[in-house]
Design brief:
About 50% of the residues lie in helices and about 15% in strands. It is an alpha/beta fold. Strand 5, helix 5 and strand 6 form a beta-alpha-beta unit. It is an enzyme of class 1 (oxidoreductase).
C-alpha cells in the first residue's frame, strides 16, 4: 500500500513516520518547505504539492475544511491527479457539511472516501496509539484497515461520510465543556482550602470524573507543561463548527452556545496560539491557583 500524507505538521508528520516504521511505502507533502525539510531530516521522502505522486491512499492532516477542499478540488487537486480507486482519508477535524459535499464529489470521480478524525495528540500520532472516528463505506474501511491499525489503538465506525466529523465535533464540545467545568470545581475546592491535586483525586474516584480530570489535568495542567500540541485556536474553530452544525439542524443547545461564548470571551486568555488547556488558567486564578508558576519554578531550579 503506497500512502501519501498531505500536511506534515505535528499530527501529520508523526503519522507519516509511524506508518513508515510500520513498513508502509510512505511519502509526505506540505506547502511549507520547512515542514518538508523537518520530515526529510527524519528519513521521510517528501515533495512539494505540485509533485504529489500516484498513491493508493492520500492521508490528509490539515487545519480546516477550506484546506481540505483546496487539496481535493483546486486544480491540479486530488480529483484531477488521484488514480481511479484510490482512497482519500481525511484525519482533520472538518465541517461535516463540507465533508459530505467533498465525499460525494470524490466518489463520483471514481475514488473512495473515509473521514477519520483523530484524538491522542502528537504523542498518540508518534506511537501509533491514536483514537479514530470513522465515517464512510465499510468496504473502504476494511480496505485501509491495515493502515488504520498501524496508526491507532482504537477505531470506531460511526456511519457514512461525514459521520466521523460529526462525532468528533461532539467529542471536542464535551472536552471543552469539561475543561471549564472541572476548572470551576477545582477552583471551588481550592478557595475552600482543599489542595487541587487532592480535589482531583476525589473527583476521579466519583461520578464527576472525565478524561479531562483523569488525563488533561495531571498531564498538562498540574504539571505546568501546557504542551498537549493542540491550540486554543483550533478548539475555538471546532466549537464554532459544532455550534453552526446544531443551528443548521434547528437544535436549541443552550449550553453549547454558553461554552462557545466562554471560549471566545477573551482572545488573550488564552490566545489562539496557546495550548488549549490554558482555558482553565483564568478560572483557577480566581482561587489563587497558577500551575504555570510550577513550570517556571522548575526551570529556574533545574538551571
Amino acid at each position: 500500500m503506497k500512502i501519501t500524507v498531505i500536511g506534515l505538521g505535528q499530527m501529520g508528520g508523526n503519522m507519516a513516520l509511524t506508518l513508515k516504521r510500520a513498513g508502509f511505502d510512505v511519502s509526505g507533502s506540505d506547502r511549507f518547505e520547512a515542514a518538508r525539510e523537518r520530515l526529510a531530516a527524519q528519513g521521510l521522502a517528501t515533495v512539494g504539492p505540485e509533485a504529489i505522486a500516484a498513491s493508493d491512499v492520500y492521508l490528509l492532516s490539515l487545519p480546516t475544511s477550506d484546506h481540505v477542499r483546496e487539496v481535493i478540488e483546486t486544480s491540479p487537486g486530488l480529483l484531477d491527479r488521484a488514480p481511479m480507486g484510490s482512497v482519500i482519508v481525511d484525519t482533520s477535524t472538518s465541517d461535516p457539511v463540507v465533508s459530505r459535499e467533498l465525499a460525494a464529489k470524490v466518489i463520483a470521480a471514481g475514488l473512495e472516501w473515509l473521514d477519520a478524525p483523530v484524538s491522542g495528540g502528537p504523542k498518540g500520532a508518534a506511537n501509533g496509539k491514536l483514537g479514530m472516528l470513522l465515517g464512510g463505506d465499510m468496504a473502504t474501511l476494511e480496505r485501509v484497515m491495515p493502515m488504520l491499525e498501524a496508526m491507532s489503538a482504537k477505531r470506531t465506525h460511526v456511519g457514512g461520510p461525514g459521520s466521523g466529523h460529526v462525532v468528533k465535533l461532539a467529542n471536542n464540545y464535551l472536552c471543552a465543556t469539561n475543561l471549564i467545568a472541572t476548572a470551576e470545581a477545582v477552583a471551588l475546592a481550592a478557595k475552600a482550602g482543599v489542595d487541587p491535586a487532592a480535589c482531583l483525586s476525589g473527583l476521579n474516584s466519583g461520578s464527576g470524573r472525565s478524561a479531562v480530570s483523569e488525563v488533561n489535568f495531571p498531564e498538562w495542567i498540574l504539571s505546568g507543561r501546557f504542551d498537549s500540541g493542540f491550540t486554543s485556536g483550533l478548539m475555538r474553530k471546532d466549537l464554532r463548527l459544532a455550534r453552526d452544525a446544531a443551528d443548521d439542524l434547528g437544535l436549541d443547545l443552550a449550553l453549547l452556545h454558553q461554552v462557545v461564548a466562554g471560549w471566545h470571551a477573551n482572545a488573550e486568555r488564552p490566545t489562539d496560539g496557546d495550548d488549549f488547556n490554558h482555558i482553565v488558567s483564568p478560572i483557577l486564578a480566581q482561587a489563587g491557583v497558577d500551575f504555570t508558576r510550577r513550570s517556571t519554578n522548575d526551570e529556574e531550579t533545574s538551571a
